[in-house]
Amino acid sequence: MPEMWILSSPRWRRRLRWPIALVVVAVPLIFLGVHYSTPGNPGNATGPEVDLPGYAEQKSVPFTKEKQRAVRQVLRDFEATAVARRNVGVSWDLAAPSLKEGVTRKEWNSGSLPVVPYPAADKGLGSWSFVQYSYPRTVGLEVFLFPKPGSGFSAMTADVELVKGHDGRWRVDYWMPKSFHGPPSVAAKAKARPKPAKHSVPAKAAGKRSAPVRRRAAPAPAPVGTPKVNRAWWLLPIALLSLIVLAPLGFGLGTWYRNRRARRDYLRGES
Predict the structure, then answer these.
(1) How far apart are CA 60 and CA 22, in angstroms?
(2) For residue range 73-117, what is the model confidence (pLDDT) as tens digits?
(3) CA 146/CA 117 separation, integer angstroms
(4) 171 with 165: CB under 8 angstroms?
(5) What is the distance in angstroms between the CA of the first residue and the CA of the last residue of the chain?
(6) Which among 157, 153, 156 has a CA at the least distance from the CA of 184?
(7) Pick from 108, 130, 107, 247: nearest CA to 178
(8) Selection from 258, 270, 268, 262 nearest residue 15 by Cα
(9) What distance in Å separates the CA atoms of residue 195 and residue 162, rounded to the nearest whole number?
(10) Which of 132, 137, 191, 258 has its CA 20 to 30 A from that of 244?
(11) Where are the alpha helices (DSSP H) in 117-222?
Protein backbone atom coordinates (compact mmCIF):
# COMPACT_ATOMS: atom_id res chain seq x y z
CA MET A 1 0.00 0.00 0.00
CA PRO A 2 1.23 3.58 -0.67
CA GLU A 3 1.04 4.56 2.99
CA MET A 4 3.17 1.62 4.06
CA TRP A 5 5.59 2.34 1.23
CA ILE A 6 6.01 5.92 2.42
CA LEU A 7 6.65 4.84 6.02
CA SER A 8 9.04 2.11 4.91
CA SER A 9 11.18 4.56 2.97
CA PRO A 10 14.01 6.07 5.06
CA ARG A 11 13.99 9.21 2.92
CA TRP A 12 10.26 9.83 3.48
CA ARG A 13 10.60 9.11 7.18
CA ARG A 14 13.29 11.79 7.38
CA ARG A 15 11.10 14.24 5.45
CA LEU A 16 8.08 13.61 7.64
CA ARG A 17 10.06 14.00 10.85
CA TRP A 18 9.80 17.79 11.04
CA PRO A 19 6.08 18.12 10.13
CA ILE A 20 5.20 15.46 12.69
CA ALA A 21 7.28 17.20 15.35
CA LEU A 22 5.59 20.50 14.47
CA VAL A 23 2.13 18.97 14.87
CA VAL A 24 3.07 17.27 18.15
CA VAL A 25 4.29 20.56 19.64
CA ALA A 26 1.72 22.94 18.12
CA VAL A 27 -1.45 21.01 19.00
CA PRO A 28 -0.86 21.05 22.81
CA LEU A 29 0.08 24.73 22.68
CA ILE A 30 -3.08 25.64 20.77
CA PHE A 31 -5.17 23.62 23.22
CA LEU A 32 -3.59 25.36 26.22
CA GLY A 33 -4.04 28.78 24.61
CA VAL A 34 -7.74 28.21 24.01
CA HIS A 35 -8.38 26.52 27.34
CA TYR A 36 -6.62 29.08 29.56
CA SER A 37 -7.40 32.24 27.61
CA THR A 38 -9.06 35.01 29.60
CA PRO A 39 -12.77 35.20 28.80
CA GLY A 40 -14.53 38.49 28.22
CA ASN A 41 -16.50 40.25 30.88
CA PRO A 42 -20.02 38.77 30.89
CA GLY A 43 -21.34 42.14 32.03
CA ASN A 44 -20.24 43.76 28.78
CA ALA A 45 -22.62 41.97 26.48
CA THR A 46 -22.13 42.84 22.83
CA GLY A 47 -24.60 40.43 21.28
CA PRO A 48 -27.98 41.33 19.84
CA GLU A 49 -30.73 42.31 22.20
CA VAL A 50 -33.22 39.54 22.84
CA ASP A 51 -36.78 40.28 23.89
CA LEU A 52 -37.58 38.31 27.02
CA PRO A 53 -41.09 36.91 27.24
CA GLY A 54 -43.33 38.88 29.57
CA TYR A 55 -41.05 41.94 29.62
CA ALA A 56 -41.80 45.17 27.81
CA GLU A 57 -39.59 48.22 28.06
CA GLN A 58 -41.44 51.19 29.53
CA LYS A 59 -41.86 54.30 27.43
CA SER A 60 -40.98 57.69 28.79
CA VAL A 61 -43.85 60.10 29.35
CA PRO A 62 -43.94 63.77 30.36
CA PHE A 63 -43.82 64.54 34.07
CA THR A 64 -46.93 66.66 34.08
CA LYS A 65 -47.90 69.31 36.61
CA GLU A 66 -50.58 67.05 38.02
CA LYS A 67 -48.07 64.26 38.63
CA GLN A 68 -45.63 66.73 40.15
CA ARG A 69 -48.18 67.97 42.68
CA ALA A 70 -49.12 64.43 43.75
CA VAL A 71 -45.49 63.26 43.94
CA ARG A 72 -44.33 66.38 45.81
CA GLN A 73 -46.82 65.89 48.62
CA VAL A 74 -46.00 62.18 49.08
CA LEU A 75 -42.26 62.89 48.92
CA ARG A 76 -42.50 65.69 51.47
CA ASP A 77 -44.46 63.59 53.96
CA PHE A 78 -42.12 60.61 53.50
CA GLU A 79 -38.99 62.70 54.08
CA ALA A 80 -40.50 64.37 57.15
CA THR A 81 -41.42 61.03 58.74
CA ALA A 82 -39.50 57.97 57.50
CA VAL A 83 -36.25 59.76 56.64
CA ALA A 84 -36.21 62.24 59.53
CA ARG A 85 -37.56 59.57 61.93
CA ARG A 86 -40.46 61.68 63.19
CA ASN A 87 -43.88 60.04 63.52
CA VAL A 88 -42.51 57.05 61.60
CA GLY A 89 -45.84 55.22 61.72
CA VAL A 90 -47.36 57.78 59.34
CA SER A 91 -44.91 56.75 56.59
CA TRP A 92 -46.23 53.16 56.50
CA ASP A 93 -48.99 54.15 54.08
CA LEU A 94 -46.54 56.25 52.04
CA ALA A 95 -44.25 53.29 51.23
CA ALA A 96 -44.82 50.86 48.37
CA PRO A 97 -45.25 47.13 49.16
CA SER A 98 -41.80 46.36 47.75
CA LEU A 99 -40.19 48.76 50.25
CA LYS A 100 -42.10 47.19 53.16
CA GLU A 101 -41.33 43.62 52.13
CA GLY A 102 -40.11 41.55 55.09
CA VAL A 103 -40.92 44.29 57.64
CA THR A 104 -43.90 44.16 59.99
CA ARG A 105 -45.98 47.18 60.89
CA LYS A 106 -44.71 46.96 64.48
CA GLU A 107 -41.07 46.93 63.36
CA TRP A 108 -41.71 49.84 61.02
CA ASN A 109 -43.34 51.94 63.72
CA SER A 110 -40.43 51.24 66.09
CA GLY A 111 -37.95 52.64 63.53
CA SER A 112 -36.68 49.35 62.07
CA LEU A 113 -37.41 50.22 58.46
CA PRO A 114 -35.25 49.86 55.32
CA VAL A 115 -34.74 53.62 54.95
CA VAL A 116 -31.44 55.31 55.83
CA PRO A 117 -32.20 57.96 58.48
CA TYR A 118 -31.16 61.57 57.97
CA PRO A 119 -31.87 64.65 60.18
CA ALA A 120 -33.60 66.53 57.40
CA ALA A 121 -34.60 70.14 57.97
CA ASP A 122 -38.00 71.41 56.86
CA LYS A 123 -36.32 73.53 54.21
CA GLY A 124 -36.67 72.03 50.75
CA LEU A 125 -38.76 68.99 51.68
CA GLY A 126 -40.72 67.59 48.76
CA SER A 127 -38.53 69.17 46.08
CA TRP A 128 -36.04 67.53 43.73
CA SER A 129 -32.91 68.49 41.83
CA PHE A 130 -33.92 66.91 38.54
CA VAL A 131 -36.04 64.14 37.08
CA GLN A 132 -34.04 61.04 36.19
CA TYR A 133 -36.83 59.19 34.39
CA SER A 134 -40.60 59.38 34.03
CA TYR A 135 -42.78 56.43 33.01
CA PRO A 136 -46.57 56.07 33.11
CA ARG A 137 -46.59 54.63 36.66
CA THR A 138 -42.99 55.21 37.80
CA VAL A 139 -40.83 58.28 38.31
CA GLY A 140 -37.19 58.54 39.43
CA LEU A 141 -35.94 61.70 41.10
CA GLU A 142 -32.76 63.07 42.62
CA VAL A 143 -33.56 65.01 45.78
CA PHE A 144 -31.44 67.45 47.77
CA LEU A 145 -31.91 67.66 51.54
CA PHE A 146 -30.57 70.16 54.06
CA PRO A 147 -29.58 69.01 57.57
CA LYS A 148 -30.89 70.39 60.81
CA PRO A 149 -28.65 73.03 62.40
CA GLY A 150 -26.19 71.45 64.79
CA SER A 151 -26.84 67.89 63.58
CA GLY A 152 -23.27 67.40 62.38
CA PHE A 153 -24.46 66.31 58.92
CA SER A 154 -23.80 67.85 55.53
CA ALA A 155 -26.32 68.49 52.81
CA MET A 156 -27.25 65.27 51.07
CA THR A 157 -28.26 64.08 47.62
CA ALA A 158 -30.43 60.95 47.42
CA ASP A 159 -32.06 58.86 44.71
CA VAL A 160 -35.76 58.13 45.15
CA GLU A 161 -38.29 56.25 43.06
CA LEU A 162 -42.05 56.54 43.38
CA VAL A 163 -44.63 54.22 41.85
CA LYS A 164 -48.32 54.66 41.26
CA GLY A 165 -50.53 51.92 42.68
CA HIS A 166 -53.74 50.53 41.28
CA ASP A 167 -55.64 52.82 43.62
CA GLY A 168 -54.11 55.85 41.87
CA ARG A 169 -51.91 56.85 44.83
CA TRP A 170 -48.17 57.48 44.55
CA ARG A 171 -45.88 55.72 47.03
CA VAL A 172 -42.11 55.62 47.64
CA ASP A 173 -40.60 52.44 46.21
CA TYR A 174 -36.87 53.20 46.63
CA TRP A 175 -34.76 55.57 48.74
CA MET A 176 -30.96 55.65 48.88
CA PRO A 177 -28.49 58.44 49.82
CA LYS A 178 -25.98 59.11 47.09
CA SER A 179 -23.51 61.79 48.24
CA PHE A 180 -22.92 64.52 50.81
CA HIS A 181 -22.03 68.12 50.01
CA GLY A 182 -20.30 70.88 51.94
CA PRO A 183 -19.21 71.11 55.58
CA PRO A 184 -21.29 69.57 58.36
CA SER A 185 -23.83 71.69 60.18
CA VAL A 186 -22.58 72.38 63.71
CA ALA A 187 -24.20 74.17 66.63
CA ALA A 188 -23.59 77.87 67.27
CA LYS A 189 -21.69 77.12 70.49
CA ALA A 190 -19.32 74.80 68.65
CA LYS A 191 -18.55 77.52 66.11
CA ALA A 192 -17.26 79.92 68.80
CA ARG A 193 -13.76 78.73 69.59
CA PRO A 194 -12.36 79.56 73.06
CA LYS A 195 -9.56 82.11 73.07
CA PRO A 196 -6.17 80.74 74.13
CA ALA A 197 -5.10 81.76 77.65
CA LYS A 198 -2.37 84.33 77.92
CA HIS A 199 0.72 83.19 79.80
CA SER A 200 3.46 85.45 81.11
CA VAL A 201 6.77 85.03 79.34
CA PRO A 202 9.94 85.06 81.49
CA ALA A 203 12.28 87.99 80.91
CA LYS A 204 15.14 85.72 79.82
CA ALA A 205 13.01 83.88 77.33
CA ALA A 206 11.41 87.08 76.01
CA GLY A 207 14.51 88.09 74.08
CA LYS A 208 15.03 84.68 72.54
CA ARG A 209 13.19 83.64 69.46
CA SER A 210 11.65 80.24 69.78
CA ALA A 211 12.80 77.72 67.24
CA PRO A 212 10.15 76.87 64.70
CA VAL A 213 8.51 73.57 65.32
CA ARG A 214 8.96 71.29 62.40
CA ARG A 215 5.93 69.22 61.78
CA ARG A 216 6.45 65.90 60.18
CA ALA A 217 4.38 65.52 57.09
CA ALA A 218 1.70 62.90 57.30
CA PRO A 219 2.64 59.77 55.41
CA ALA A 220 1.05 59.44 52.03
CA PRO A 221 -1.70 56.87 51.86
CA ALA A 222 -0.53 53.53 50.65
CA PRO A 223 -1.53 52.96 47.05
CA VAL A 224 -4.29 50.52 46.54
CA GLY A 225 -2.83 47.28 45.30
CA THR A 226 -3.65 46.57 41.71
CA PRO A 227 -4.17 43.00 40.69
CA LYS A 228 -1.11 41.44 39.13
CA VAL A 229 -1.54 40.57 35.50
CA ASN A 230 -0.43 37.08 34.65
CA ARG A 231 1.93 37.43 31.72
CA ALA A 232 2.51 33.71 31.26
CA TRP A 233 -0.10 33.56 28.52
CA TRP A 234 2.20 35.64 26.31
CA LEU A 235 4.41 32.55 26.01
CA LEU A 236 1.76 30.73 23.97
CA PRO A 237 1.57 33.09 20.97
CA ILE A 238 5.34 33.62 21.09
CA ALA A 239 5.93 29.86 21.00
CA LEU A 240 3.49 29.46 18.11
CA LEU A 241 5.13 32.25 16.12
CA SER A 242 8.54 30.77 16.83
CA LEU A 243 7.40 27.38 15.54
CA ILE A 244 5.99 28.96 12.38
CA VAL A 245 9.35 30.58 11.65
CA LEU A 246 11.80 28.04 13.03
CA ALA A 247 10.13 24.86 11.78
CA PRO A 248 10.39 25.66 8.04
CA LEU A 249 13.87 27.05 8.60
CA GLY A 250 14.98 23.90 10.38
CA PHE A 251 13.36 21.71 7.75
CA GLY A 252 15.13 23.63 4.98
CA LEU A 253 18.49 23.47 6.72
CA GLY A 254 18.08 19.74 7.30
CA THR A 255 17.23 19.13 3.64
CA TRP A 256 20.18 21.26 2.50
CA TYR A 257 22.53 19.39 4.80
CA ARG A 258 21.32 15.98 3.63
CA ASN A 259 21.65 16.98 -0.04
CA ARG A 260 25.15 18.31 0.56
CA ARG A 261 26.18 15.12 2.33
CA ALA A 262 24.65 12.97 -0.42
CA ARG A 263 26.50 14.99 -3.08
CA ARG A 264 29.74 14.66 -1.16
CA ASP A 265 29.28 10.91 -0.84
CA TYR A 266 28.54 10.70 -4.55
CA LEU A 267 31.69 12.60 -5.49
CA ARG A 268 33.77 10.36 -3.24
CA GLY A 269 32.32 7.30 -4.90
CA GLU A 270 33.28 8.55 -8.37
CA SER A 271 36.79 9.30 -7.25
Answers:
(1) 61
(2) 999 999 999 999 999 999 999 999 999 999 999 999 999 999 999
(3) 13
(4) yes
(5) 39
(6) 153
(7) 130
(8) 258
(9) 51
(10) 258
(11) 188-191, 203-206
